[in-house]
């Protein structure tokens, strides 16, 4: 039995158990959830759900979704199921490799497929000491497989949305461009004057719209961290505390 902690998300509206050691969800899956243009009654599949952070944050914002997910680590999949029950969320969470989805998942098409793939290519970086963190952060399954599985499981006109490190964007674009269209990129910039560290990529099955590189979203106020406490911009604070949506570029209201 591993040690866990209970952590509040979305201003306390969502409480998740996660391992004390190993991969622990931060703001990235919350931001991913905020960008999903889902509507009530639609279906969502998450590839690599961890303890369920992104999927359940989305469920808190958009009611009556049909939720499914796959997670390769048994401990995290079990915690995701417990977290769904504890937060009164109905979700079909399966333990398994995304490259070999359960048969009934492979027979379904989804309106949205979302993913926060491992960020680090281990041919060019060192593995983490903790196994749970390494599986979550070190790329064991090629990024091309994540994209291929997402594209195969999308319904016509469905959306795939990924969050990834900015330096992996060329590779992600290469794979997505072969499978999906209407690609949009939302850069996430830590502070003014800094390069974007993360990007959210959204693409559509059968989409024909022009490529869009949206204006970056600023995460923190000020050029550097100068005081104790958080320094999130009002837009990001609203996402993290209130579960607000995070729109792409000209889609902002």
Question: Keyphrases for this structure?
Answer:
253 residues, 8 helices, single chain, 27% strand, alpha/beta, two-stranded antiparallel sheet, Rossmann fold
How are the SSEs ordered, and which strands pair?
Elements (H helix, E strand, L loop, with lengths): L3 E6 L4 E6 L8 H7 L8 E5 L5 H9 L4 E6 L2 H13 L4 E5 L7 H4 L3 E6 L15 H7 L5 H11 E12 L3 H11 L1 E9 L6 E9 L7 E2 L3 E2 L15 H9 L11
Parallel strand pairs: 3-4, 3-6, 4-5, 6-7, 8-10, 8-11
Antiparallel strand pairs: 1-2, 7-9, 8-9
Helix pairs in contact: 1-2, 6-7
Query: Ranges with pLDDT <50 over ≥5 residues?
Result: 125-139
Principal-axis shape equals globular
Reading the helices and strands in chain order gives EEHEHEHEHEHHEHEEEEH
Say which CATH homologous superfamily is assigned: Vaccinia Virus protein VP39
- Please indicate the count of domains: 1
Structural class by helix and strand composition: alpha/beta
CATH class group: Alpha Beta
The percentage of residues in β strands lies in: 25-35%
What's the mean pLDDT score?
90
Question: What is the CATH T-level topology?
Answer: Rossmann fold
Tell me the radius of gyration. Answer: 17 Å
Question: How would you explain this protein's 3D organization?
Answer:
Residues 125-139 have low confidence and may be disordered. Strands 3, 4, 5, 6, 7, 8, 9, 10 and 11 form a nine-stranded mixed beta sheet that branches. A two-stranded antiparallel ribbon has the order 1-2. The protein is globular. The chain is an alpha/beta fold and 253 residues long. The protein has a single domain (14-251), classed as Vaccinia Virus protein VP39 (Rossmann fold, 3-Layer(aba) Sandwich), CATH 3.40.50. The chain has eight helices and eleven strands. Pfam families: MTS (PF05175). This is tRNA1(Val) A37 N6-methylase TrmN6. InterPro entries: DNA_methylase_N6_adenine_CS, SAM-dependent_MTases_sf, Small_mtfrase_dom, tRNA_Adenine-N(6)_MTase.
